[in-house]
Design a protein that fits this description.
The chain is an alpha/beta fold. Helices cover about 30% and strands about 25% of the residues. β16 and β17 form a beta hairpin. The longest helix is centred in the last third of the chain and has 15 residues.
């Protein structure tokens, strides 16, 4: 099994503590300086010993692991890792632990790399004091760059992320506009700051007169140029996974034709491809090569429904021809509704060549936490 974390120690006490962590934290590989690995009473078999300088070992670990846990001084960790740093979106998390295990320090990639989360987990396992210096974590407010991460939300761009984060932690007015996506996005243990104002759509924000230097937009809709120009100068747009594509096709339809229909349809509707959660169709299409290839390309799950399930949805225009072929009176419309939980479609059945498509928005009923309240995990 591939290990996710690498724990590195260069002193006898550090190696013993790293070995203890390796036994407690699943997915941790332990590396110890060979000179001090001997005589650890059975623990040495779990340790990968190295002879050369730790400086020579770290480049390989940086390429191979999600997090590097260093059991030596913070100053040494800074000097050794500085030449290896590239970008916050790709660098692994780096955590530093003193050899007595008294402090666990989140040093690098606290948010995107998960160092802050892992620091708290390790501190709990070792009975140590976690040290986290990220402003949003210290203030107990949500981190913009991690927003909706557990739900698969992703930003259109990181360009405005720094400015929006700065506005949030410095108490400047921030507009939070959520048109779609999960409503319980506020992370456990955080509060919605008083200077953040919630809006249900962009029209409400633009018509409110609320003056703010920064905004967070959560939507599956594409921003029209006039709308984008009217938003605050620092704006981050997040794409929730909120759309379901109901798809039907003739046997043997190529993935390229299916993809072309999907892209054209979403563009016509003004919806983002990045907000597609999954595709849905009839069970009889579960081996359709074109559908499988399309879903594999975009990382979508293909949900399949039996004729009995599809026929539980009342259709305005049931098809006798589709019933003869599949046992259901419709495929793309009922599949989209069943998968999304929606009561209506954003797009009713549309036929293009060998493909039929319908689009629905996923129902998210969990209410958002109100201002000044916290969400507990």
């Amino acid at each position: 099994m591939h290990k996710r974390y690498a724990a590195v120690a260069i002193t006898r006490n550090g190696i013993m503590l790293a070995a203890k962590l390796g036994a407690e934290l699943s997915g941790t590989a332990v590396y110890g300086y060979a000179k001090y690995c001997g005589g650890l009473e059975g623990q040495s078999g779990e340790i990968a010993a190295f002879d050369g300088p730790v400086r020579d070992l770290l480049p390989q670990l940086f390429r191979s692991y999600e997090a590097i846990i260093l059991f030596f001084s913070l100053g040494a960790a800074v000097r050794l890792t500085a030449p290896l740093l590239g970008d916050k979106k790709t660098d692994p998390a780096v955590i530093v632990i003193d050899e007595r295990g008294e402090h666990v320090i989140s040093m690098l990639s606290g948010h995107l790399g998960g160092a802050n989360r892992l620091t708290l987990q390790i501190a709990g396992l070792l009975g140590s004091h976690p040290v986290i210096t990220t402003a949003s974590d210290v203030q107990g407010i949500f981190a913009v760059d991690l927003l909706g991460q557990e739900y698969g939300w992703r930003p259109d761009s990181f360009a405005g992320m720094k400015a929006v984060s700065a506005a949030l932690v410095n108490g400047e007015p921030v507009a939070f506009v959520q048109e779609s996506g999960e409503r319980g996005w506020l992370p456990p243990g955080t509060v919605l700051p008083e200077h953040v104002r919630l809006f249900t759509d962009r029209e409400e924000l633009l018509g409110s007169g609320f003056s703010c230097p920064a905004a967070i937009i959560v939507t599956d809709r594409l921003l029209l140029e006039p709308e984008a120009a009217a938003l605050p100068g620092s704006t981050v747009v997040f794409r929730p996974r909120s759309l379901v594509l109901g798809l039907g096709c003739n046997r043997g339809t190529a993935a390229a034709e299916l993809e072309a229909v999907v892209l054209h349809t979403l563009a016509e509707l003004g919806l983002s491809l990045h907000s597609v959660r999954n595709a849905a169709t009839a069970g009889i299409k579960g081996d359709e090569a074109g559908l499988l290839a399309l879903c594999a390309k975009y990382g979508w799950e293909l949900e399949l429904y039996s004729p009995e399930q599809l026929n539980t949805i009342a259709l305005d225009n049931p098809s006798a021809a589709v019933f003869r072929a599949t046992g259901a009176y419709g495929v793309c419309e009922p599949a989209a509704l069943l998968s999304s939980g929606a009561g209506e479609l954003l797009l009713r059945k549309h036929k293009s060549g060998n493909v039929t498509i319908a689009v629905a928005r996923v129902v998210h009923d969990v209410p958002c936490v109100k201002k000044g309240e916290s969400r507990h995990g």
